[in-house]
UniProtKB/TrEMBL annotation:
It is found in: Secreted, Extracellular space. This is trypsin. Its main location: secreted. Residues 23-251 form the Peptidase S1 domain. It is an enzyme of class 3 (hydrolase). Keywords: Disulfide bond, Hydrolase, Protease, Serine protease, Signal. Gene3D superfamilies: Trypsin-like serine proteases. The lineage of its organism: Eukaryota, Metazoa, Chordata, Craniata, Vertebrata. It holds the Pfam family Trypsin. GO terms for cellular component: extracellular space.
Length: 268
């Protein structure tokens, strides 16, 4: 009897944390509808962050998702993260490129590129994410979409963890940075999104995943204060501030350094 009660309590707690810690206020995404989304897993198979495939060899994610290249596995074509569905592709990281301005105490420049040891194959389940141009913004109120698998350390791995998604409007930096909200902690490298009534948000474990506006990845899930809190929108790394860095990191390493003609072209 005692043992049974303990099991019931554990199952209830697991469900509670599972529901609490995933994308807040959203719904299940259609299978493989967000084909550039990847799951970052520990070598033991535990999902801990999201990411976006931006090149067959490269994943864009948050710098705070860095647990060390040796501890990581990247999975593309996933839908239920703890179940093998036959659509997954696995790759180990070759190098992690953390943005040089990343500051873990302020969360500034919370962006990282992961180069894979082997390229992902683009197919019905795996595609590349379109990025915004350098310096482009998204207007306040513009509705964007954030997606992810969430995460919780209590989860045993029995309950299928299905991809979830929710739409959230962009909040102006002025409001997000105001004394009513993040009180001066928002930098120009961050954008905020959420409803003034709260209830819809990304949450722990959605970190590193994409905020998509007009089909482009304008944000990377970065930080916040709780999840779905009316006073505190979700804070995302502003990808358009880093487009040049992304291109230089991905293409600079192969082309620009070895080919002076392309280097001259890229400067135009
Ligand atoms: C991070 O930011 C804080 C606050 O601005 C600053 O004091 C600290 O030196 C920075 N750390 C690094 C590694 O840049
Ligand atoms: C802003 O940052 C300061 C210093 O890191 C911290 O003490 C404060 O709680 C933060 N405020 C909010 C609303 O995030
Ligand atoms: C947010 O407020 C702080 C403190 O007033 C300020 O230093 C910072 O530049 C503001 N951020 C933006 C993006 O304007």
């Amino acid at each position: 009897q005692f043992k049974f009660n303990v099991v019931v309590v554990i199952v209830v707690l697991q469900l509670y944390y599972a529901l609490k810690s995933r994308i807040v206020g959203g719904h299940t995404a259609a299978p493989n509808s967000i084909r550039y989304l990847v799951s970052l897993k520990s070598t033991s198979g535990q999902h801990f962050c999201g990411g976006s495939l931006v090149h067959r060899y490269w994943v864009l994610t948050a710098a705070h998702c860095n647990i060390g290249a040796e501890q990581m596995m990247i999975v593309a074509g996933d839908y239920k993260v703890n179940i093998f569905e036959g659509t997954e592709q696995y790759a180990k990281p070759r190098i992690l490129v953390i943005h040089p301005l990343y500051n873990r105490s302020t969360n500034n420049a919370d962006i990282m590129l992961i180069k894979l040891r082997a390229p992902m194959v683009l197919n019905k389940y795996v595609s590349l994410a379109p990025l915004p141009r350098q310096g482009t913004g998204v207007a306040e109120g513009h509705v964007c979409r954030v997606s992810g698998w969430g995460y919780n350390s209590l989860e045993g791995g029995q309950v299928p963890v299905t991809l979830r998604t929710v739409t959230v409007p962009i909040v102006s930096t002025a409001r997000c940075n105001s004394s009513d909200s993040f009180n001066g902690n928002i930098t120009a490298n961050m954008i905020c999104a959420g409803y003034s009534t709260g209830g819809k948000d990304a949450c722990k474990g959605d970190s590193g995943g994409p905020l998509v506006c007009d089909r482009r990845i304008y944000g990377v899930v970065s930080w916040g204060n709780g999840c779905g809190d009316a006073k505190f929108p979700g804070v995302y790394t502003a990808v358009s501030r880093f487009r040049r860095w992304i291109d230089q990191t991905i293409y600079g390493s192969y082309l620009l350094n070895t080919c002076p003609f392309l280097h001259a072209l890229s400067a135009l």
